[in-house]
Write a structure and sequence with these properties.
The chain is α/β, with parallel strands linked by helices. It has helices spanning about 40-50, 75-90, 110-120, 150-165, 195-210, 220, 230-240, 260-270, 290-300; strands at about 25-30, 55-65, 95-105, 125-130, 170-175, 210-215, 245-250, 275-280, 285-290. About 45% of the residues are buried.
Length: about 300
């Protein structure tokens, strides 16, 4: 079986720079009641993380800046940090809780994004930069494809991702090919090879600026029924020399905390990516996937 070539892709031996930590499981994309589209208290997701065997969780609530977005102005940074400290106190010794953020990026709102990053960026352990919008403040949802061809949507999207990377404000890029999630049924024949050439400058920017990209597992449990991105893009990134990957479930409730992480680690390993990143104070350190999988197996 050839899963976009990943089964035959040679594993890389870069163990010298990776930490050997046998008891660590990372979910670095979880939302709470501080996101406009989530009602889950932080404490509930912490309890779910402990039950699921997660050892490090990053609460990455939406920070929106598009004027049309109902989430703009919803996030309350000081309330978030107060709740985070309460959770850290309660779960001390059972769960590492990182201060995180998912900051929406578009060149239309770049000034506002910079203002937030300048004010709060150094208070976080981990910051995701995500592109959710197309032209004129329009969300990349199914109806967006009614007025723009898929190739045009992806072209603009990848240009915005590259612009986000080149700011240097983000530690990782969220759900790298998320437009595929919203392709209408009649257009749902997404082939990442179509965008191979467009991805090359994105990879080059990621590598040059030491920015990671996220494997977002939410696509496994809903459309498009695969991670965002999937194995083909991971393999091309590895071929380009990329080494920085983060993992997250994009959970908006306790039930999905930790979902799909094991499958994602196995996919990464098969595609030649030997490590994922663990963060503290905006610094990412590689952790061996072999150790993460061995740790999870030992708990089964």
């Amino acid at each position: 079986m050839d899963w976009f070539g990943c089964y035959s892709w040679p594993l890389l031996a870069v163990r010298s720079n990776a930490r050997r930590i046998p008891q660590i499981v990372l979910d670095y994309h979880v939302h709470t009641e501080f996101s406009v589209d989530c009602t889950a208290p932080m404490r509930d997701s912490c309890q779910a993380a402990v039950a699921a065997g997660i050892t490090e969780i990053a609460f990455t609530d939406h920070i929106d800046h598009q004027p049309e977005d109902p989430g703009t102005g919803y996030y309350r940074a000081e309330h978030y940090f107060a709740a985070l400290q309460q959770a850290r106190d309660e779960f001390d010794g059972r769960l590492v809780i990182l201060a995180g953020a998912e900051i929406d990026f578009h060149t239309d709102t770049q000034v506002d994004v910079k203002r937030f990053v300048d004010a709060f960026g150094d208070r976080y352990d981990f910051v995701i930069g995500s592109v959710h919008y197309g032209a004129n403040g329009a969300l990349i949802y199914p109806d967006y494809f009614e007025r723009s061809a898929p190739d045009d949507v992806f072209k603009e999207y990848f240009e915005q991702v590259q612009a986000a990377v080149e700011t240097g404000w983000f530690d990782t890029i969220g759900h790298l090919d998320i437009p595929k999630r919203y392709l209408p049924g009649r257009l749902r024949h997404y082939d990442p090879m179509t965008y191979y050439q467009q991805l090359q400058p994105v990879f080059a920017s990621l590598i040059r600026h030491d920015v990671a990209f996220e494997i977002n597992t939410s696509g496994i449990r809903q459309a498009p029924k695969t991670s965002m991105p999937g194995p083909a893009i991971v393999r091309w990134y590895v071929e380009a020399g990329g080494k920085r990957i983060t993992t997250g479930t994009d959970s908006h409730g306790p039930r999905t905390v930790g979902a799909g992480l094991r499958e994602t680690l196995e996919m990464l390993r098969l595609c030649g990516m030997p490590t994922v990143l663990s963060f503290r104070d905006r610094v990412g350190n590689p952790v061996l996937i072999d150790d993460l999988l061995a740790a999870r197996s030992s708990r089964v």
